[in-house]
Amino acid sequence: MTRTIAQQAELALLLEVATTPKPGNVDRHRDHGDLRFEHFLAGTVGASDGLRALADPDGPPIGVAFERAVEGMSDQSGGNTQFGGLLLLAPLVRAAALGGLTPDRARRIAEGTGVEDAVGFYRAFEHVDVAVADPPEDMDALDVRRGSDAVPAVRQRNLSLYDVIERSADHDGIAREWTGGFERPLEAAEAIETRDGPVTDRAAETFLDMLATEPDTFVAINHGEEVAESVRERAAAARDGRVKPDALAEELVAEGINPGTTADLLAGGLFVALCRGVEV
Amino acid sequence: MTRTIAQQAELALLLEVATTPKPGNVDRHRDHGDLRFEHFLAGTVGASDGLRALADPDGPPIGVAFERAVEGMSDQSGGNTQFGGLLLLAPLVRAAALGGLTPDRARRIAEGTGVEDAVGFYRAFEHVDVAVADPPEDMDALDVRRGSDAVPAVRQRNLSLYDVIERSADHDGIAREWTGGFERPLEAAEAIETRDGPVTDRAAETFLDMLATEPDTFVAINHGEEVAESVRERAAAARDGRVKPDALAEELVAEGINPGTTADLLAGGLFVALCRGVEV
């Protein structure tokens, strides 16, 4: 007996939040204000039906299954826990269900989304507040914060989910993976496979390396690009042994800085690593 | 949208292991030798199919569904994580599925088990090593450690799961609840409902109170009744403010003492509390 694909995705979300230290994020040893560890546990359990729909080769369009996952995730009092992680997992889980998790297959699934996927995506914003960047002025009708109210405009322009996400690829790290072939979660999976020790320790090292390599876009959206770049530099100092990772974790939580996109990318990496047979 | 009954059970298992301090047990801040936090996460995810079968009013006999849950739980490298918790949850989950979680209904389900339930229970021991007491000499054929090899004897004597469990009620805290009306998990649920703060903090206070009230039978099986009684006294000191609960947690882990039955009872209490509407 082995875990199903949906169970691997669920476990990936749980391992992500358990991974510590994961500077700035909720982890096994740190809450983040009113956003607490147990909200991520409840968010994961709530998302499980949507994950099963994603893992069903004959399931609904991935945007529709994603909305179901987000709806379930939101059934806890902490707010947004794993919106970005689920958005990243959606094409990866469906790819695994359709015969194997290759970059090519995930890319084809992302590119093959249609207007119903886009509608599901917009509806998902009805269930939870998600911090997003302001849209360009001429895009106001398609602002994701409009939620279902944007659906007529989405249908009228016959936009696919890929089209919608592509418009954020310049400033959103999840969108960048969707349109760029999922390179970073795949690299994270390789790092997790290659390292030694308990899986959450390997994931913690991988997280720090990811945060040290590229500025976190969620930090950039909330605090500006300069802050995101400075967090990247501080993560590099921690990765290179000039600062203790736990000290950086305490500092970022105290500063209210939350590199949530890098955590979402790690969840994707953990999912791929589990599918490739990494043991827990 | 709210969590399904199976999802409440899954979340109860996750909240149980996240609850800290939970002296002597794996919790959010402590591993226990090679038995680590992430093994409980994987154990919970693996158990989810079995929990769904338990939560299906038309599902298989609860002993059969229990075996499925244990098989999935065992798909991680830490060993036994939640065997006792799942055994306690089995009648509670089925009771919730059959129209409401009352003590009467749970008791009727336990008493109404048959030989197929008992067969499932014995088979569950094939999947994982569980620390149990030696059986009386005349009971050797029914030693649970025989696993499937005991099934012919179980069938020949037409034993129900209730019959089998009743024989352990003098020395096993889960068996005591099965045959005693599930009083302690129900009391735990009330305590969790009544207290204030994040649900895992309420659960931690409840755990300490339970450990201070009755000797843990898993400690008694592994270390003898005197040690179990001394752990109870030390828990009472922590509960009454004479010792820091975190200090007791460090001590018990260092001594290799693991009050696992009390943790299982807490998981049952968390499940009941979630079903009654306690928010996460």
Provide tags for this entry:
280 residues; homodimer; mainly alpha; 15 helices; Triphosphoribosyl-dephospho-CoA protein
Mean pLDDT score of chain A: 96
Give the helix tally of chain A. 15
Instruction: Name the chain pair whose interface involves the most residues.
Output: A-B, 33 and 33 residues
Which fold does the CATH topology of chain A refer to?
A: Triphosphoribosyl-dephospho-CoA protein
Low-confidence stretches of chain A: none
Specify the biggest β-sheet of chain A: none
Q: Would you report the number of β strands of chain A?
A: 0
What gap, in angstroms, lies between the N and C termini of chain A?
Answer: 14 Å
**Strand content range of chain A:** under 5%
Provide the CATH top-level class of chain A: Mainly Alpha
Structure characterization notes:
The structure is a homodimer of 280-residue chains. The first copy, chain A, has a single domain (5-275), classed as Triphosphoribosyl-dephospho-CoA protein (Orthogonal Bundle). Chain A has 280 residues and is mainly alpha-helical. Helix content of chain A is 62%, strand content 0%. The mean pLDDT of chain A is 96. The first copy, chain A, is globular, with a radius of gyration of 17 Å. Chain A is built from 15 helices and no strands. The A-B interface holds A 1-4, 7, 10-11, 14-15, 18, 28-29, 36-39, 41-42, 44-46, 48-49, 71-72, 75-77, 198-200, 279-280 and B 1-4, 7, 10-11, 14-15, 18, 28-29, 36-39, 41-42, 44-46, 48-49, 71-72, 75-77, 198-200, 279-280.
